[in-house]
Amino acid sequence: MHRIMDVFEKLRARNEAALVPYLTAGYPSMERTGEMLVALGEAGADLLELGIPFSDPLADGATLQRISHLALERGASLRSALGLVASVRSQVAAPVVLMSYYNPILRYGEERFAVEAVAAGVDGVIVPDLPVEESTTLRVACARSGLDLIGMVAPTTPGERIAAIAEASSGFLYCVSLKGVTGSRRELPQDIDLLTGRVREATRLPAVVGFGISSADQVRRVAAIADGVVVGSALMDRIDREPARCVEVASEFVSKLKAACREARP
Asked: Mean pLDDT throughout 232-252?
């Protein structure tokens, strides 16, 4: 199972960056999340990131914190998210990457999680609060099952640590664009290219940039220098404003963002 690798190879041949929209599992409901996963794949998403709601989402800003809380109140869990992926996998060609804090995975059981995630059709997992030094057991479980464990680096990550995180990662490397939590931003840092440059010096893994990217113009700017672009809070903001029309609203937004990816490079 190499869907993530295959996507980046195909996009590289087209000189195009990947668009990676983020959804919170279970908001506004698990059923609607499934409908949106299918619709966003049809709207042009190259990969799909699915967030597992958690009670203490330390890397998330106000929007995703509140939405995560509401999803938990409505019964969302790691188990139900895996069931959701399994239920739509045959309708979604794009790779699916889970974003989960470590506690739900630890409680579920690392080996069990990796095995059941792959069986459900999950391609990779991002664990934002798991330091590389403490990731060995999960990394082994993921490698044994064929699940990509995707590391995260930030503007403050030293070069030697980027190399260590990259060595322990597969699929791609998630580059946090700013010093802070997720959330829409009117302006992005001017030196994002410095981080992607340092990542490319350390590894051949694709460099995918997320956090704070909110508009087609920002996607266009980041897609010119990165292998992929994640848009989360801005998408969930729109879904939150019109939950009854969430599928249509999300599809329209993702279609515009994907067009910006295609326009970003000559």
From this structure: 96
The two beta strands, 228-231 and 96-99, are unpaired
Rounded distance between C-alpha atoms, residue 243 and residue 239, angstroms:
5
Which of 11, 21, 2 is closest to 229 using CA atoms? 21
Distance set, CA 95 to CA 38, 161, 202, 257 (Å): 12, 27, 25, 18
Cα angle vertex 148, ends 65, 188, to 5°? 45
Candidates 18, 83, 75; CA nearest to 50 is 83
Task: Grade residue 114 by pLDDT with cuts at 50, 70 and 90.
Answer: very high
Amino acid at 122: V
Residues in the chain: 266
Letter string b/e over residues 134-151, b meaning 16 or more CB atoms within 10 A of that residue's CB: ebeebbebbeebebbbbb
CB 100 within 8 A of CB 54: yes
Task: Please give the average per-residue pLDDT across 130-147, as a whole number.
Answer: 97
pTM of structure: 0.94
Q: Looking at the annotation, which residues are catalytic?
A: 49, 60
List helix spans (H) across the chain: 3-13, 30-43, 62-73, 78-88, 102-108, 110-120, 136-145, 159-167, 192-202, 216-223, 233-241, 246-263
Task: Report the interhelical angle of 233-241 vs 246-263 (nearest 10°).
Answer: 150
Topology given in CATH for the domain delimited by 3-263: TIM Barrel (3.20.20)
Q: How many CA atoms lie within 13 A of 232 on its CB side?
A: 29
Q: Domain segments of the chain: what residues? A: 3-263
Q: Across all residues in the chain, what is the average pLDDT?
A: 93
